[in-house]
Amino acid sequence: MLIFSIVLAFSPHIIFFVIVRFLLGVFCMGAMASSFCLGMEMVGPSWRVFAGVVVEYFWIAGSLLLLLLGYFIRYWKTLQLLFAIPTALTTLIYLKFIPESPKWLFVTNKTEEGHKILKKIASSNGVQLYDIKIIVSKKGGNDVPSGTLWSVMKSPVLRRQTLNITLCWTVNVMIYYGITLNISALAGNFYTNFLISIVLELVAYLTCQFFLNYSRRLTVAISMIAGGLAMACIIAVENESLITGIALFGKFAISISFGAIWMYTPELFPTCVRNAGIGFASMFGRVGGILAPIIGDLVSDITLHTKSYHILIYI
Known about the structure:
By secondary structure, the chain is an all-alpha fold. The protein has helices spanning 2-8, 14-41, 48-72, 76-97, 102-107, 111-125, 132-140, 149-154, 156-181, 190-212, 216-233, 240-267, 271-296, 302-314. It is globular. The relative contact order is 0.12.
């Protein structure tokens, strides 16, 4: 990510830019899925909701940084180089302070390494670590489970869950990025609208964190329904300012769903296939991300463009 972020700023032509941008996206999505899965496996059940949603708060911080830099720096190459700085800092922090997942190490029979990490964590927390090696040896056996996509699809239950959650990912990503990328098509100042959408997104994640303590599935379902109804309401609205407000509410609703689905997905899969399951669902989610700007460019007129886009999403 760091290398491609820097190289991207020195793109000599559009073909080179597209190739490097594609490679940057590949590594970025891989890092996001893996780091989220790692974070979820590093905490117990009582902290799982917080660990899952706190990632979104840093997403908000990154969006605010993007808005601030984008407002004062309009030359894209300078802006791209500045984006490489937080990438470098987070890479150094990641390598220095984040260990491997003990849960994954135990599942793959790397008991000694997992025990060392747990011992270090227990020592820093001031708690006593019991002899977990005996427990793991009794439960784990010698068979290392397969953590591949094929192992996910062989199970009827996992297959049904994977296909269901994959569809939810595709719709969530399409609506989320569709509204975000089309902020400029809405009435009002672009930077003001983007700032409002960030604030609404922060409130959405706070709301998401609250409701996730009661039900993951209902949080995803209700927020997606609310987002769909908001998009449908635009059909009957002519006032552009009101359209902007409804669209921003739609982003608020889909942000709740997006935060919940990141939290919900890892819990649907066992440890040995968790990363594969998240990666598969996220991969098809990016199909929705690819479709989002294409749908937004279907009509050139701003008013018709905005309305037709949200109608198509709702359908």
